[in-house]
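Re: [help] complex structure
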Amino acid sequence: MRIFDPHIHMTSRTTDDYERMAAAGVRAVVEPAFWLGQPRTSAASFTDYFDSLIGWEPFRAGQFGVRHHATVALNPKEANDPRCRPVLDLLPRYLDKDAVVAVGEIGYDSMTPEEDAAFAAQLSLAVAHDLPALVHTPHRDKARGVERSLAVVAESGIEPGRVVLDHLNEVTVKLVRDTGCWLGFSIYPDTKMSPPRMVELLRAYGTERMLVNSAADWGRSDPLLTRATGEAMLLAGFTDDDVDRVLWRNPVEFYGQSGRLDLADLDPAAGTFAGNSILRGGE
Amino acid sequence: MTPDSLRAALRGVPDPGWLDAALRRVAADPATITAAFAAAGRRCGRGELADLPGWSADEAARALLLTALTADHAGYAEALYRHGDAAEKRAVLKALPLLPIGAAGVPLLHDALRTNDTRLVAAALGPYSRQLDPAAWRQAVLKCVFTGVPLAVVHDLDGRADAGLAAMLAGLAAEREAAGRAMPADALDLLDRLSARSGPISGGSGRPPSQEA
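Output below.
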């Protein structure tokens, strides 16, 4: 089972996790920039964080044979802090980097006017830099947050197929399924989604445009729940090819739209997608 | 290494037209180097260059972009390094000996040598490492031994290796021996060469009597 975890915060994880992930079949990850639990007090703090996402963390991952990519953005929560707003001016520099495969996590936390402004501005940056966008959907008032996110996405002019709405569940999946956007599901030990519930959604809605991630971070979470979901799929009668589509080919297709995924040296079979070499990045 | 040999080795890259145009733009408008530097890997590829062992296509293209500047090489090298991802940083480090900057790039070497990214450590020990003072250079060589960077990457290793480095290596060999851990073969070979040059090294026992894999 080859696994591409399209959303995991490896900066918060240990080398034990990298070892276990590699042993479980995780060969590539995308690490979105997010809230660190402790509020940051200046844009300079984000510079160090973003530098780490495109510098030290890929090196660390490489020690375990895991290919690491990143998305960068001002996250919704800290978009409300005036001290962090200048981060928006730093982003263009990072959005040109090879390892940056999307703008994210953007979207809503509390649905404030400040979040509106940062969300729209960063969708524009995604369009300007020809990158996909990773949209976090809020924990509180989620259904309304998803609807409002879809409206902002539509208004921005970004192509829906270049957007993923993440952290969806049984209720919010219905809102996104027919929009053309990708659907992200975070599998957690207690909250968000579980492997058996995920299997039910894949049964009901199919495997197209479906992304499964562990979203593992500094909270109670488990980087191996992608693998557990693949195993639950097989037990439920899905084929190896279904599992490969959800856990490998779908994330490769979504983030491959950046033209910057380079998985060629991970394994020869992964070097091309759909018969072409877009993974090498035509840009 | 010269800009001409970099250019010659890059003839076969996927998009040589892009590189030529970027070089002309940088010569005319230096600020364009920032975007070109970031895009160089996507345009020119990242594979090893057949005609230039030790250089990848992105490194060579980026080094060439730096040499295309007509002024303020040190300022641009620093900015591109400070704002670079690991591959961009590596390219700046490798370009330093090609630039008319005297010792102005030394702080970048110090930065790279403080990291634990072995690719940066190795890139900092090319020809420009002659600008490092002896203490910093010895620490850098020892760091290679610690982190598994082959000593073959160190420019002028035997020419610069001195009694101070020999004593540090002998000390490390003694610690490794006491711990039952292996010392890299290239470090033991260097220690042997230094011992042969100056007699037994003080500060350690020299090469341990036997090594296990």
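The beta strands of chain A are 3-5, 26-32, 67-72, 100-107, 133-136, 163-166, 182-186, 210-213.
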